């Protein structure tokens, strides 16, 4: 399995941000984590990324134990934060080239263009500086960077927040393609409709605990909303 949490716990002072999380996510799965602000979604992502150390329990990526400041597990992971950080004065092609080189890949021009195209960015934008891009366009560049890194797992934090319905739909289609190509996607989201649409599994967190885990195909958006409101 690509992601595994075993009794994974994070405490800040006396407060438990994540409480004994047990979870396995397989290749090709799209796991959507729902929960109120402060429920522990970002903490979970940060623990898998090794941005923060677990207080107890384990996070494993591709079977390898995550420990902060070691690169072993990072190469299996790509991360798309809520706001994709890009160099405003560079074009999307230049940003993709730059971040790919940092990840250790030197792509030909045509390959870079292919990644941007796959991520759904319109070719007219390839040579425009990203400073003028919309949020949806930045998101697509973020996806291209993540895919070009060749990582098996893509972690996303609230990827559809602030996207319009069409951009959200386009994003969902890309995520489905990533899943079909065997990538594992793990996203924190507030978007119930999108979770049902794009997810294979859905988790609901409350105060650091994973309270429900369901198969997306077994639930409608309406029923998920009902369960969510009853849970939180
Ligand atoms: N660096 C930190 N120091 C202290 N407390 C923190 C820190 N990071 C997170 N927390 C606390 O841990 C809890 C979980 O936060 P987390 O960011 O994981 O929630 P979330 O589910 O991602 O929320 P949101 O939907 O707002 O992003 C919160 O109570 C938060 O205040």
From TrEMBL:
Alphabetical list of InterPro entries matching this protein: AAA+_ATPase, ABC_transporter-like_ATP-bd, ABC_transporter-like_CS, ABC_Transporter_VariousFunc, P-loop_NTPase
ABC transporter domain span: 3-232
Protein name: ABC-2 type transport system ATP-binding protein
Gene3D superfamilies named among the record's database cross-references: P-loop containing nucleotide triphosphate hydrolases (3.40.50.300)
Domain of life (superkingdom): Bacteria
One function term, GO molecular function aspect: ATP hydrolysis activity
The keyword Transmembrane helix appears for this protein: no
Source organism of this protein record: Pedobacter steynii
CDD domains: ABC_DR_subfamily_A (cd03230)
UniProt keyword terms in alphabetical order: ATP-binding, Nucleotide-binding, Transport
SMART domains cross-referenced by the UniProt entry: AAA
């Amino acid at each position: 399995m690509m992601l595994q949490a075993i009794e994974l716990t994070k405490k800040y002072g006396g407060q438990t941000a994540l409480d004994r999380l047990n979870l396995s996510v397989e290749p090709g799965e799209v796991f959507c984590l729902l929960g109120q602000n402060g429920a522990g979604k970002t903490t979970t992502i940060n623990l898998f990324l090794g941005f923060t150390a677990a207080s107890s329990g384990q996070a494993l990526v591709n079977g390898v134990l995550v420990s902060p400041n070691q690169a072993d597990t990072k190469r299996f992971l790509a991360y798309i934060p809520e706001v994709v950080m890009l160099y405003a004065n560079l074009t999307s092609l230049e940003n993709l080239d730059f971040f790919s080189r940092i990840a250790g890949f030197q792509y030909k021009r045509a390959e870079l263009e292919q990644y941007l195209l796959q991520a759904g960015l319109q070719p007219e934008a390839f040579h425009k500086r990203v400073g003028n891009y919309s949020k949806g366009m930045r998101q697509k560049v973020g996806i291209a960077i993540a895919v070009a890194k060749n990582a098996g797992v893509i972690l996303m934090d609230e990827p559809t927040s602030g996207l319009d319905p069409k951009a959200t739909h386009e994003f969902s289609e890309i995520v489905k393609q990533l899943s079909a190509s065997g990538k594992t996607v793990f996203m924190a989201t507030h978007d119930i409709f999108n979770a049902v649409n794009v997810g294979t599994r859905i988790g609901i967190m409350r105060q650091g605990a994973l309270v429900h885990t369901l198969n997306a195909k077994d639930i409608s958006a309406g029923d998920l909303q009902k369960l969510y409101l009853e849970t939180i």
